[in-house]
Amino acid sequence: MPDRVVGDLAHEVRSKNAGPFWITMELFMRDADGYALVADDLFLNAGVIARLYDIPAEGIRFFRIPELNVVKISFPRPVSQGSTRDRDIHAGQHHVPLALLPLD
Predict the structure, then answer these.
(1) What separation in angstroms does the CA of 53 have from each of 19, 39, 68, 98?
(2) Gap between the Cα atoms of 69 and 89, Å rounded
(3) Taxonomically, which superkingdom (predicted)?
(4) Beta partners for 25?
(5) Selection from 71, 70, 69, 22 nearest residue 48 by Cα
(6) Which pLDDT value is given to residue 39?
(7) Is residue 25's pLDDT more than 80?
(8) What's the CA gap between 52 and 68, in Å, rounded?
(9) What is the 3-state secondary structure (H, E, C) of the chain?
(10) Where are the domains of the chain?
(11) CA gyration radius for the chain?
(12) Cα separation of 103 and 79, whole Å?
C-alpha cells in the first residue's frame, strides 16, 4: 500500500446515490492545502475517475467548492439502482477506490 492516500488528507470521503441513475462522491478535505491537491485537474480528473471505476470519462462531472474545501464528483451509474446487476443499491461503497488513490 502507498505511503499516503487521498483519504489521509480528508475528514471524510463518501459516496451516495444521486437518484437512481447517478452516483456522487464527496471529498471533505481537512484544509486548503489538501483541497488544492485534490482539486487540481492535473491530479484528479475524468480520466482518473474513469480508470478507477472502469467507466467512460464522458459524463463525469466535477464540482469544486473551495470555500468548503470540498470536491464532489458525479457520474452515471453503470446499472440503475435496484436493478438485478446492482451490487451496491445505496452506492455507499463506491468511495473506497477514491479514498485509496495514492498521493505519491
Answers:
(1) 18, 19, 26, 9
(2) 28
(3) Bacteria
(4) 15, 73
(5) 71
(6) 96
(7) yes
(8) 25
(9) CCCCEHHHHEEEEEEEECCCCEEEEEEEECCHHHHHHHHCCCCCCHHHHHHHHCCCCCCCEEEEEHHHCEEEEEEECCCCCCCCCCCCCCCCCCCHHHHCCECC
(10) 6-99
(11) 13
(12) 30
With a cut of 70, say whether residue 30 has pLDDT above it: yes
pLDDT in tens, 33-42: 999 999 999 9
Tell me the CA distances in angstroms from 93 to 13, 14, 35, 41, one per residue in order. Answer: 10, 8, 22, 24
- pTM for this model (two decimals): 0.89
Residues 73 and 1: their CA atoms lie apart, in Å, by 24
Q: pLDDT tens digit string along 38-88?
A: 999 999 999 999 999 999 999 999 999 999 999 999 999 877 787 787 677
